[in-house]
Amino acid sequence: QVQLQESGPGLVKPSQTLSLTCSVSGGSITSSGYYWSWIRQPPGKGLEWVGAIDSSGSIWYSPSLKSRTSIYRDTSTNQFTLQLSSVTPADTAVYYCGRGRVLSTTTPDYRGQGTQVTVSS
Hints:
This protein has about 120 residues and is mainly β. The chain has no helices and eleven strands.
């Protein structure tokens, strides 16, 4: 069974870059047919799809976040990473990584437990 685990700093200052890594076990991020995604949930709000990278390395971003988002992967460590630049308090959220078969879904088949990121000075 696939397991995903998010890691990264819990506190980021405004204007800095948020960087989170998803470590995957029980399956390869190069296995065909899957999207490896980032999703977030701000306090009191619904889930928001941030972006994804597929098995071949193709990348998609949410249009609203595209200018500040970068997703890349390391196949040697079976990890993929989210970077979100120029963060503001509006980027405060629980961030999840997931694996699914549908692009831009906020409910992937497998999802990590999530990590809280707070943007504050």
